[in-house]
Amino acid sequence: MIELRGVCKSFGSKRAVDHLDLTVRPGELYAFLGPNGAGKTTTIKMICGLLAPSKGEVLVGGFPAASQDAHRLLGYVPDQPYLYDKLTGREFLKFVVEMYGVGRTAGRDRIDELIDTFEMADFIDELCENYSQGMKQRVVFASALVHDPRVLVVDEPLVGLDPRSARIVKDLFVSRARSGAAVLMSIHLLAIAEELADRIGIVDRGRMLTVGTLGELRERAQHDGSLEELFLKLTGNDLPRTTGPGSRIRSETST
Amino acid sequence: MSIALPKPLDASPPGDDRTARALRWLRWRQFRNMTGVLASDARLRVSMIAFCSVVFWLGLFFLFFGSFQFIAMYVDLANTIIEYLFSMFFLSLLVMLLFSTGIIVYSALFHSRESTYLLTTPASADRIFAHKFGEAIGFSSWGFFLLGSPLMVAYGLTRNAPAGYYLMFVAFLLSFVVIPGSLGAIVAVVVANVFPRRQKMVLAVSILAGLAVTTYVGLQLWRTPGDALTRDWLGSVLNRLAFCQHPLWPSRWMSAGMLAAAKGDWTDAGYYLMILSAHAGLCYLSAAVVARDLYRRGYSRVQGGRSSRRRAGLLFIDSAVHRLYFFFPHPVRLLIIKDLRTFLRDPAQWSQFLIFFGLLAFYFLNIPRLGYGAQSAYWRNLVSFLNLSVTALILSTFTSRFIFPLLSLEGRNFWVLGLLPLHRDQILWAKFVFSASIALVSTEFLVVLSDLMLKMSPLMIALHVGMIAVLCLGLSGISVGLGARLPNLRESDPSKIAAGFGGTFNLLVSLVFIFTVVTALAVPCHLYFVGQEHPETARFILSRSGLRFWLTTAIIASLALSAAATIIPLRVGVKAFQRMEF
Fold first, then answer.
1. Which chain B residues are within 8 Å of A76, Cβ to Cβ?
2. What 3-state class would DSSP assign to A38?
3. Nearest C-alpha of chain A: how many angstroms from B82?
4. Which three-class secondary structure state does DSSP give residue A207?
């Protein structure tokens, strides 16, 4: 459903994505991991057709990522979601239903269903400008799912969500994947990736370091620890510094 | 808590009509909700804006009405002058709309979060363009309507035009604004594709080119031979403005059509309306095709063109600020340095500042060539006060546009400042010092330059230096104080904060302040010098002792007013800022 072949993306002299190959199959939940600045968000923006690759090919459902055909299949939850301040949550969902050409009755039913799923009935008829971060995030998730996308791309999905909403979102990812959708999730919470993902891809400096199930990654890296330890080992930062050089000198001197 | 799988939806590919309807519905719903909120929560604000707009409109209307009556009664070349006047007016608006719509379309298409969102939906690129273009045209041309409608109504009433003339004006207006708007949009999309990292440079070069052309035309008019306002002189002036009558200018079609409509010549008016609307359609179609083919590519290039340039530390500026403001607490100095760095790294701020004050300096330097220095003391006094007023007015637009929004913008990141070990009032004082310093350095230089070029006496130079100093302090106090009292913490765009209620109110208060101080000091000087120059015709004359008395009174009153304008808004601002919850 999502396919990147030899994709490069440069910003001036800086190469953000470097010959990246990535495939997310239908029915698969793919966790896309990497340190800050590794090129995850750039890759996701290319999948959504917002950025054109400098080299290579990005396909969604077999269509070029920037095409309208690809966008019809896609549900996207960005890291900084956008809502219209002067619309209510329900009006926003209605707008999305219209934009994706969902039938009026089916759309209304789907909106009611998602309001119920994300427990938004208390605030959905207020203007979005009055929402908290978590409320906004829930409306954005509902808007990404309201047209029943075959491909779901999510950048940092759990930011701002309370534990109950986070649980709902996690269950939704799994249920979307089991219903045949391709789900690509970029996330820093490695425990979530470990818990949910069918396959994990770790990217660093724009290059794919490794791809596979958690078991395959452990086997390949000859490492039996947690995903966090594996991640740190692969990205070359297995011993993170928690103190600066000055503090270290002070603590050494005092001992 | 298991989630049931949704039933597959029957989602047919959305037709372009349905997308267009959805976007129209979106705009309408936003407008309805916004007016609902304004009507219930901000009646006072809406009433004030409506009141100010009506006063502004009526002021312009009576000005234009009086001017048309004057031209019709006293000048032989009335019809020709009005034809040229309209052509120049619409040509100027054409150029301004080209720039303003181009800039607004650029930021709406390539830097707005709404566009980013819409580009991920199945809406086609030209449909998104159409949606954002309509918004940009509305933003850029409301000023045109506010300026053009009193002009056209005044002309219609002077000529006893038929009712159809007023309807024609609306039709002409709608067609006219689309032409520069579409051309500006084409330029915006092409610039994004060709110069994705050089858009500010392109804008700066375009503004400089526009200014060069305006200066050239201005100088040509200024050098018109003959005695001013004689028939020959007017003929020469009109000859030099003949370029605005070129038959290929849309502004010419607009002015010819409106003049024909005012005379009730519907054949000619209809002919020009058809030419104008046909070209408007063609221009819009061209813009939509360019957007269809280049918008997504341009968006990608602009987003991919972010700067990774390392910024210089500007350490010499840091140490200069610390030395210059040694008497302020260290945190206040650090805040001044922060604002100074932001100012220097934002070309929108310093370029506007440089362009306006640079043009003024250019004009002041040319004063000897214009011959003002050789004029009588009366004229030199008049021109010196006018120069001072213009300097203060430009300063007030600067403080309203850049200083007023500072606190609103700070509010969004207040957790940074709020957690620092300093008092909230120190933040305001730092803004005030920052604003007053920039204002003082630039305006004092300009006022002294103007007075030296006009060969003013040391006493008058000292008076003007003192005047502009108190104006700088007052304008800074008003902008910082009102900025804290009427912040807009939801908005991240400083131009929108400045254009909102608080910014407009700040500008109005600043204008009233400037008018009061300048009038108080200029009137005694004027009455004294007019007595020296035309003692036989002047109605009110001040003797030297009278001048001394009234000038002293005016200086004391201006100082008191300036102190009030500086201290009261700052105190109000400090109180509001200390109560503010972020």
1. 120
2. coil
3. 45
4. strand
The pLDDT tens digits of the residues spanning A41-94 come to: 999 999 999 999 999 999 999 899 989 899 999 999 988 888 998 899 999 999
Q: Establish if B12 touches chain A: CB-CB under 8 angstroms.
A: yes
**Could you tell me how far CA A187 lies from the centroid of its own chain?**
6
Q: Answer whether residue B364 shows pLDDT above 90.
A: no
DSSP secondary structure, B105-124, as one string: HHHHHHS-HHHHHHHTSS--
- The architecture CATH gives domain A2-254: 3-Layer(aba) Sandwich (3.40)
Q: What is the pLDDT of residues B200-227, one digit of tens each?
A: 777 778 877 877 887 777 777 777 776 6
Return the amino acid letter for A115: I
HEC profile of B165-188? HHHHHHHHHHHHHHHHHHHHHHHH
Residue A200, beta-bridge partner list: A31, A212
B555-571: burial string, b at 16+ Cβ within 10 Å, e else: beebeebbeebbeebbe
Interface test with B, best of A44, A71, A86 (most B CBs within 10 A): A86
Q: Which of residues 188-247 of A touch B (CB under 8 A)?
A: none
Task: Identify the DSSP state of B403.
Answer: I
Q: Is B534 left (phi over 0), alpha (psi -120 to 50) or beta?
A: beta
pTM of the model: 0.76
| B1/A168 CB distance under 8 A | yes
**Looking at chain A, which residue has its C-alpha nearest residue B19?**
A99
Expressed in angstroms, the distance from the first to the final Cα of chain A is 58
Query: How many CB atoms neighbour CB B459 within 10 A?
Result: 9
Closest by Cα among B254, B279, B272 to B86: B254
CA distance B122 to chain A (A): 5
What separation in angstroms does the CA of B84 have from each of A31, A123, B243, B445?
68, 59, 10, 38
Give dist(CA B508, CA B56) in Å, integer. 12
Q: CA-based angle B11:B17:B22, to the nearest 5?
A: 75
ipTM over 0.90: no
For chain A, give every domain's residue range: 2-254
* Closest CA–CA distance from residue A218 to any residue of chain B (Å): 30
Say which amino acid occupies B347: P
DSSP state for residue A219 in the 8-state scheme? H
Whether residue A12 and residue B4 make contact (CB cut-off 8 A), yes or no, is no
Q: With beta carbons less than 8 A apart as the criterion, state whether B441 and B532 touch.
A: no
For residue B113, the chain A residues in CB contact (below 8 A) are 80, 82
Distance CA A17, CA A4 (A): 11
Does the CB of A100 have a partner CB in chain B at under 8 Å? yes
Query: Within the 122-151 window of chain A, which residues sit less than 8 Å (CB to CB) from chain B?
Result: 127, 129, 145, 147-148
Shortest CA distance from B118: residue in chain A: A99
Say how far apart CA B304 and CA B117 lie, in whole Å: 17
Does residue B37 sit at the A interface (CB-CB below 8 Å)?
yes
Tell me whether A104 touches chain B (CB under 8 Å).
no
Compute the distance between CA of residue B105 and CA of residue B70 in angstroms, rounded to an integer. Answer: 40
Tell me the β-bridge partners of A60: A2, A63
Contact A204, A38 (CB under 8 A): yes
Model confidence at B563, pLDDT cuts 50, 70, 90, reads very high
> What residues of A are in contact with residue B11 (Cβ under 8 Å)?
72, 100-103, 147-148
Q: State how far the alpha carbon of B68 is from the alpha carbons of B73, B74, B158, B260, B279, in Å.
A: 9, 10, 7, 17, 30
Sheet with A207-212, strands from edge to edge, namely A74-77, A151-155, A182-186, A29-33, A199-204, A207-212
Q: Which two tokens stand for residue A59?
A: 């396909």
